Structure formats: structure tokens, C-alpha cells
Amino acid sequence: MSRTSPDIIARRIRQGSGQEPPDLVVRDVRLFDLVTGDLIPTDIAICGDTIVGMLDRYQGPNVIEGNGRVVVPGFIDTHLHVESSLVTPFEFERCVLPHGVTTAICDPHEMANVLGTDALRYFLDAATRMVMDLRVNLSSCVPSSSVETSGAILGADDLTPLMDHPKVIGLAEFMNMPGVLAGDPDCLAKLAAFSGRHIDGHAPLMRGRALNGYLAAGISTDHEATRADEALEKIRKGMTVLIREGSVCKDLAALAPLLTVETSPFLAFCTDDRNPLEIAHEGHIDFLIRSAIARGVPPLAAYRAASLTAARAFGLADRGMLAPGRRADIVFLDDLETCQVSDVLAGGRPIGPALEQRRTIPAPGRDSVILRRPVTAEDFTVSGSGTGHPVMGIIPGQIITDFLTLDLSARHGGVEADCDRDVAKVAVVARHGLNGNIGRGFVRGFGLRRGALASSVGHDAHNICVVGADDGDMAVAVNRLAEIGGGFVIVQDGQVRAELPLPIAGLMSDAPFETVRDQLETLRAATRAMGVTLEEPFLQLAFLPLPVVPHLKITDHGLVDVGQMRVIG
């Protein structure tokens, strides 16, 4: 960690104690006290990037007029993948800083599964140039599963050279739960290398003795709890549960009843995966705060979860409260209960001028979508009789899927989709140039009645995932993704109807977030015209390949029952 010079500390002491004027005075605000929940009239004195005075009145050469507005600490997103915003880290901060998010803790897991350490180094280099404080947890599961083909492999020896970077907190979400419990050597090597550092968890549905063993590895947080009783067991066992509300995974409604003033030291907020369209419509962490309060959560509990608990859980002792010695991340609110953000200071700087002055860097990973050959309609033929065929069932608001068995028609040498019963074909096509694998299966829940949707965002190995009612349209969509370097594509009757290029690692756009937001609106309208009923069909599509024990999973090797680890299609 970087050290503060004696001269800077001396300036802070003089300004805080009134021996000299502060660099900046935030005048006439009402501080929302995270200790008592009181609103306290005050000025705030700032020296450089640090608060040095409060609960007093100050004079200085530079003043920001609060005009009686409420101020709270900057919000902390405790777990997210910037790549899921579909824009670069620099566009991400431009998108979320106005919503009061001054710190974000990211796992570059998506880009790392495509590019390996080049992705980690890009995020670390970008973080040193950003206005918000982007912290990085190094990706623990690259690849995330042995039944997929990813673009990279990262072992403990690849991660440890980066662990002392000033932007690194620790090890990112440890998704390989079976590996932890079985004492897999690669898992143990990573856990040992980061012993004593923060290690993020990823433990959906884990309870009882299995959870005990998982926590004994040194893992301390989890963002996968979907039920209040599950979350309560986890916080009773010492975890900090990160309440997630993303574009697909929406757990706030289930977990909000658990968030009280008493439990707030053990619950924080995260978005995990949230795109610019939903941020524009709803917000970011500010949306979680106002939604929690609307569901009856006390404001004190909600704002603690958004800042103080988050800071403590990740060892960020220099923030989380508006207090002397803490980082001057200040959010101005026009209304406390609805979390209406009007202005933001990040490290003592108004975010507008700061964003204009920072310098960006180019991203690696162009031309990362590599097919061994163009695919054809015949590549999506699913063999079998169709009797008792396995089908993934979408659960709205969740990334886990139901394991269904349905009787499907078999004609022309293959099992067919059944749009009348909302059953479409789904396939994963290897795109890292390492092999030509294609996994095939069926999914119910998209509402698709014609055409095809394809995405190069396919958690976690990020092969191409395509769902369709027509094999020919599926082939056109996959080949088009290769042509544009990745992204989202909609095809109907052999023609591309809409697309969103994501040329950076096949995951992120190089366009401003406003452009991506508008393109997502166009995609959403096009999918609705094809009968799709899901609110975020491309994000749901991206999660279909995700390994979640014991549910059905599509990989580039085939359709797999992860519980038994056998290819069944």
C-alpha cells in the first residue's frame, strides 16, 4: 500500500485543528450519521482527498454550497464484473459515478477467461487512472470449469506476482466449490497464496457442514444467497453477505427482510452484472438503497450496507463514513429515502472536471473471436429420439435453471425445437480458436417464436452462445459474431435484424456508454418483435453456460448434467 508523506499528514492536522484554512469547505449540509441515524447540520472540511473536519463551521478559499442537502458517504459496489456493463472501465465510471458509486470492487474474471493475465494488467493499469476508486480482486477460477474451453488458464503462480499491486484487495469469487471441499491441489495453492488476504466467496445454495468447510478455507463473503434463511446462516457463520441486484440476478426482494439496523454490519450491496440500459432506467447502488427502503428497510441500515459495512468487509478502513481521516467521497442527496443523488465528490474532487482531466488507455483483446470454420445449419442438429429429452428451464430473475425432461418431436434426422411450448434450441460454439467444439441442447423460457439470438458473452469461458427457433438463423448469427469481433446479434429469415458489436475481448464496446445504452434499446425492441418475453434476453443467454451445481449446463463439449458430470447431448 502507498504511504502518506509526513508533510501531507501535517497539513491535514493543521487544517483539521483550525491552524490553517482547509483546501475545500462543503458548507451547510445535513450529515446522515451512520452511528445514530440522526441528520446533523454541519460543514465538512477537506484537505486534498481527505476529510479533516466536521460537526463544526469552517472558512476556506474554496467552497461548495450544500444548501441544506443531505450528505452520505460514497457508495461501494462490493462485487461486480465491469465487463458486464459492456463498456470499458473508463466508460463504466462515467456511467455510475453520477449515481454516487465512488468505489467498486471488481473481478475481471470475464476478460481474464479470454485473455489471461493481459486482462488483469489492463484493469490494474486502468484503475490507476480512474476518478472512482476501482479495486481489483484477482480472478480465482480461470477456467471456471474443466468441461469448457476457455481462452486462458491462471494458476496461483500467475496471480501472486500481481497480489501486491496497490489496487489489488485479494482473491476474487471462489466458484470452484467442489474443488475447495475436495482439496483440489490448484484450489489449495490459490487459497494458501492468499491466506490472510481477502478471499471472495461464491456459494449458491451452500448450507450446513459443506458451508463450514468452505469458510474454513478463509473465504469471507458471498453474493449468491437467494433466500433469507440461507443468508442468515451465512452471516451467523461470519460471512458478509452481499445483497445482489443486477440485470438478471435479483435477490433484493428475498433478502431485504433480513436487512435491519442490527444485521446491517453483516450485509452489503453489490450489482455483479448490470448493463447501461438498466442503469439508465433504474440506477446502480442508489437503486438498491431506495428499493430496500421502499421495502421497509430502515434508512440507517440501507446506507450502512452501501458504505460502512462494505468498507469494513474489504479492509478499506479509509472510507465508509464521513469523518476526519476518511477519504472525501461525498454524495449529496436531495432526498434521503428515495436516494436522489444531486452531486458527488470523489476523493475531494467534483466528478465532472475530474472525468474531463483523466487520461484513458487502450484495451487489449481485439480479434479474439476465432472460429475454426464458419458454422452451418447442420452443425445445430441434435441427435436422439426426442423422448424424455433434457431441457433447461429459465427461472426469471435467477441464473440457476430447472432440469426438465420433455418429449420433443424428432424429424429429418434430429430433435426439433417446439416454439408452441416455448422450447428453443440452444448451443455453445467454441470461439477461442483452440478447437471446434459445439454443444447442443434445448431451453424453455425465452418465448422465442422465430429467428435466433447469439452472444459472445457466455459465462464464464465466453464461448458463443446461441438460442434459436431455426437452425439456419442460428448459423448466420454465429458467423456474424465472428465477423464483428463479438457482441450480440439478432437474425430472422437469414437476415441480421439488429446487433451490438463488442470488439474488446468479445465482451466490451469501445463506444460511449450512451451509445451502448441506445443499442441495447434497439436490441430489446427487436427481440420483442420475435416473441421474446424475457426482460434481459441477452444477459439471460449469457448465463446459460454458467456451471451451477447441480443444474443442467451447456458447454462447448455438449449438454452436461453437472451433478453427474456426464455429457448427455
From TrEMBL:
InterPro entries in alphabetical order: Adenine_deam, Adenine_deam_C, Amidohydro-rel, Metal-dep_hydrolase_composite, Metal_Hydrolase
GO biological process assignments: adenine catabolic process
A Pfam cross-reference name: Amidohydro_1
CC cofactor: Mn(2+)
Record domain Adenine deaminase C-terminal: where: 398-564
Reactions mediated catalytically: adenine + H2O + H(+) = hypoxanthine + NH4(+)
Keywords carried by this UniProt record: Hydrolase, Manganese
EC number, UniProt record: 3.5.4.2
Annotated Amidohydrolase-related domain residues: 70-349
Keyword Hydrolase: yes
GO molecular function (one): adenine deaminase activity
Record-stated family: Belongs to the metallo-dependent hydrolases superfamily. Adenine deaminase family.
Protein name: Adenine deaminase
Organism: Gluconacetobacter diazotrophicus (Acetobacter diazotrophicus)
Gene: ade
